[in-house]
Amino acid sequence: MNNIIEPKLDLPVGAIPPDIFYESSDNIPTDSFIVSRNRDGSVASTYGETSWNLTAYHPEGKPSFLYFVYWDSGDTTQTRKILMSESRLILFSLMWLRNGPSLSIGTLRNYLTVVKELARYSEKNLCRIKDLLSDEKKLWIFVESQNSGWLIQALGSMLPHLTNIKHGFMNVGDKFLQAIRTRGMQYRDTLLQHPPIPTRIYSSIIDQLTESIFEWESVAEDMLRIVKTCKENPLAGRDITHQCNRARKLGILRKKHLTFTQLASENSLEYISKKGLNPNVKSLSTLIAEIQLVTKLTIQAFTGMRDDEALSLPYNCLQTNTSNGINHYIILGRTTKLNNGHVKRTRWVTNIEGYRAVKVAQKIAEAIFAVFHINIESISTHTNKYPLFVSVGYLGFAGTMLSPKEGRFRPSKIDLTRMSRLRSRLQPIIEDDDIRELEQIDPHRAWRSEERFQLGEAWLFTSHQLRRSLALYAQRSGLVSLPSLRRQLQHVTNEMSLYYAKGSTYAKNFIGSDKSHFGVLWQETKSESAGLSYILNVLLSEDIVFGGHASWIKNKLRENDECVSFDREETLRQFKKGEIAYKETLLGGCVSTEPCKQSGLKWINTECLENGCKNLVCSLPKLERVIIAQEKLVNSLDKNLVEYRTEKTDLEILISARDKALKINLNHC
Prior knowledge:
The protein has helices at about 80-95, 105-125, 130-135, 135-145, 150-160, 175-190, 200-230, 240-250, 260-265, 265-275, 280-300, 305-310, 350-370, 420-425, 430-440, 465-475, 485-500, 505-510, 520-540, 550-560, 570-575, 605-610, 620-635, 640-669, and strands at about 5, 20-25, 35, 45, 50-55, 65, 320-325, 325-340, 340-350, 545, 585, 590, 615-620. By secondary structure, the chain is an alpha+beta fold.
């Protein structure tokens, strides 16, 4: 009796599934077995082909292929045909025969990379892939021969999926599988985590992104007008020679049309020149793609989205909630995995800069959709048929013009590896203070020995760094001392504290059970940020600090002959467990793990100073700044008011605490 086996694929809504497999004792699919279909139901790929087209099964319809040719040069020999056939059978087994939930297209592509490496090794060693996977000794020799830790990790992840499959690929024990997984974990442990961006560089990158959006906004209306004109008229905006050539090619009568320089305003021409480009439609396409990347990076900088989460944003992704006269900006998107074949929606909070970036990207998307006479008002849902970062290829200004398939548009392929001019503008030169800051964050990493972090070289910026940097710095821990960065992150810090904090009434609605949501990373990083701030601002501070907790630290110093002795990792673990806390205050910081019992009505809790609170860490430079502000406030008040007497009393407490701290410090010198 045949077993009826349906494909284990997460099918987007509207996608047509491939064939059902009727499994007998030991059969494999025929070459004509349909492994994928297009959205219109036509055949996309059959089993016997050298590549499988899974584009229709990608949530955004991105081109997605599984290529089985594993060699770089030479003919398709009989040996290669056999090994390629084995490779197909392994992928088929992963997609149809294995137990468990569906694997994403990205995971299948990763596993195929491993299978192709197995095929290359098998050809070189005159064996079959099946021989490797059924012999522990041979397979371990393959593992030992690999330089890629990632490949071993992926192999250890793939092999358990091939157990209990009739085609006999796997014949190794659990202990052996565990050994491979352990080797893969060792690789993961040696991975250098994406570094947080040093605050000066981080602030500079945000400035450059913001400035780029500002510059574009000054010419956007004119630029998008040119897009419309040049798209409606295939001769407009081209120079005379190109007009003649295109008219002849299109078989139309050539009349004199305005060239690009005649169409564009002086501001637009100056903008194009400033970017180092020539005034033509190809440059216009380049600049639109560049500003799309700028807006994408800005959104990531102020939401913590991953690359694929940002690129998959739909056109209608913006929501504004108003509460007590304050606007809160929400971006609606999807997670990176499907949920039972349906896109799983999620949300991120952002600030005015993130909101502004979305609006700029929407204007560009509208101009591209208008080419195909799409009424923007009709895009009422958050459908991924209309991506926010729609490809500029649909304009056809540079290369072959794309056409939407079945009403679906493709997102742009925008990243910094393709845009060297933008990368050079975003990457400041590394200074010694930047490296010292990284050394303070992680003193166990040899930053100066790594090629990426050499003084005088440009900071190698990747979008992945934005996620960790935002999680680390967008906290109220006092870790960020740079005034410009504090201002840039102030509003997004407020929003994330409101929407993501543990115990927040909004956190469940935004994060839910999604362990990959940025809000989870933000929560997990909160203790690390507080711990690092405590180490830098208390244990290693060169400023005069005093107060209850500061006095306790000084007593420890005396016991250790004025030598600071602390275990950095243990300190961070204590913060993670909630045994220690550190919150920035106007006067310095507070180490209480419980909510403050002092009055919340005053902007300065002078009671902490007056009563000698055991949790207080007061910084003399901060106290000096508060005294200056308080003096201005007192001098502005009517001396006959009660308010004046109250504020003057607070000022006297502040001055008394400062004088006492200076006296104690002088006696110790």
